[in-house]
Write a structure and sequence with these properties.
homodimer, two-stranded antiparallel sheet, 16 helices
Chain lengths: ~325, ~325
């Protein structure tokens, strides 16, 4: 796994991102050099390797998928008015809104440039997968924005939203890597389902850690979703399970933004605990984790070749077997 | 030519643009149904026809190029804070800024979906042409925004900006249409140069008509560029040709936005006339028109087959031979 992380780092280090006009490309270089986990290109190369693919062929797709992902972050940060990304000012803050829009658009096109750099017998399938994934990610972001305006979002709707917003890009990256290696379609499908389950588990666990995580492990303040009145899986499930009185209290609390939010966080966590939300979400994460494991197991490739993906899954979900 | 306009209308009428979530797709349908001249898909199909191509093969690319063009308009209108497009409220006004960003992004991806719908032996070339054109259009928009902040833009820089912002998309549409018909590369190059010259001539003539046009023919109030302090070819050329005193006056006028702008417009036009700017721009338009004509003439195809493109050129530049 460490080898793959280094490979991806080398790919990005070797690439030039600044062209003329520099006002357009400086924010792109800034964004793509911030790093982050680069989990999608790592997944793509791991899937490629799983089927004995040639990393030199898949490397441009790895660049493409990460460039696309960063384009969505750039526009999401503008839409959500987020001040920070990976501890640094977001592009719309460091430059301005128009720069965030146009440099983002250009990054989407640059992602295509990377995908189009090399010929491949399955290129049309690869590009279709990339593009349909891109459309789904946009749809997921729209559902996310819609849900902010609604107070009757079901768990099923929430799961579909995070599937589109988060899981399909992980799954798409895996599928693309496998397509580059001309893997059998049946195995590609298993790999795709592995990615979906992994993405869902990862997102739900993120909701969980934000509420109940160990600050030292989580790496940031807990309870932030509650402070931000974010409608997570936990909140929506509590609305489904709570008494009429608890539901009303939760709605009231999530409509408020008190100066000192610690009491707010404490009270919401108390309700979550009382309703057994924590255990329930843990069970759902475990279920998705098992689905991911079964999908990985089903791939008709020697077990030792699956080790990097197994490690990636465990690292992403913060667990050791 | 009328046949091609109808063909393009039929293609758009037959296409579905609304999917779920409708909050994402309603603005897309609104934009794509507004119509407009749809000159780029018409050009694409005309180029395809010129080389005996199959319109059924090229029709999805026609959809793709117009969807891309409308995506750029959607984001440009937001960046420029334009209230109206084709006489109707712009998307960011009718909905909001986030909708304009995300529905725009989705339109870019939809454009790709259309391009990817059908296989083609030259698909990678077609997609490369589309994507490199898209990147150039973004670069053109960035130069346009840069120039608003600068007061020393040269004519050469201005021409390069409108080449990127306007001409390459016309030229790209023509090239793509020709690629679908598997035209010889030499003819594709002539056609591309035809598109560049046509695009430049069209944009310069637009600058000219805005200042000196007949309101009845132009269809909107003249002098708007001057009221908006827009740095057109005319203004930049006047800065190059004017006396120190005239240059200072122009700069002062363009730094002001008086309540009653008629006097402002009148004075600027007086300076333009005194410096012979009108004739000079007319000559430049004529030169680009001739270049376009020569490029069209150079294509190794029977003259009668060129008639639709000839007519399109003349219609676009508002002249009859």
């Amino acid at each position: 796994m460490q080898t793959l992380l280094n490979t991806v780092k080398d790919i990005f280090d070797a690439e030039q991102f600044v062209f003329e006009p520099h006002e357009l490309y400086d924010p792109i270089e800034y964004t793509l050099r911030l790093g982050g986990k680069r989990i999608r290109p790592v997944m793509l190369l791991a899937a490629n390797q799983l089927f004995g693919g040639d990393a030199a062929q898949a490397k441009d797709a790895a660049l493409g998928i990460e460039t696309f992902h960063n384009f969505t972050l750039l526009h999401d940060d503008l839409m959500d008015k987020s001040p920070l990304r990976r501890g640094k000012p977001t592009v719309y803050r460091k430059w301005n809104e128009n720069t965030a829009i146009l440099s983002g658009d250009t990054m989407f096109a640059m992602a295509w440039r990377y995908f189009l750099r090399q010929p491949h017998t399955r290129l049309q399938e690869i590009l279709n997968c990339f593009n349909e994934t891109a459309i789904e990610v946009c749809e997921g972001q729209q559902y996310d924005m819609n849900f902010e305006q609604r107070d009757n979002v079901s768990i099923a709707e929430y799961m579909e939203m995070i599937r589109l917003k988060t899981a399909v890009l992980l799954a798409g990256a895996l599928k693309i890597g496998a397509l580059y290696a001309c893997a059998p379609n049946e195995d590609i499908e298993h790999l795709y389902q592995f990615g979906i389950a992994l993405g869902l588990a990862f997102q739900l666990q993120d909701d969980l850690l934000d509420a109940f995580g160990d600050v030292a492990v989580f790496g940031k303040q807990t309870g932030q979703d509650i402070r931000d009145n974010k409608k997570t899986y936990l909140y929506l499930r509590a609305l489904e399970k709570g008494s009429a009185q608890e539901v009303q209290e939760l709605r009231d609390i999530f409509a408020s933004t008190p100066e000192n939010s610690d009491a707010k966080v404490a009270r919401v966590l108390e309700i979550y605990r009382h309703l057994g939300i924590k255990e329930e979400v843990e069970n759902t994460v475990e279920m998705e984790f098992s689905k991911a494991q079964r999908s990985l197991d089903a791939i008709a490739v020697g077990e030792n070749k699956k080790r990097p993906l197994q490690e990636l899954m465990e690292a992403l979900l913060g667990r050791k077997k």
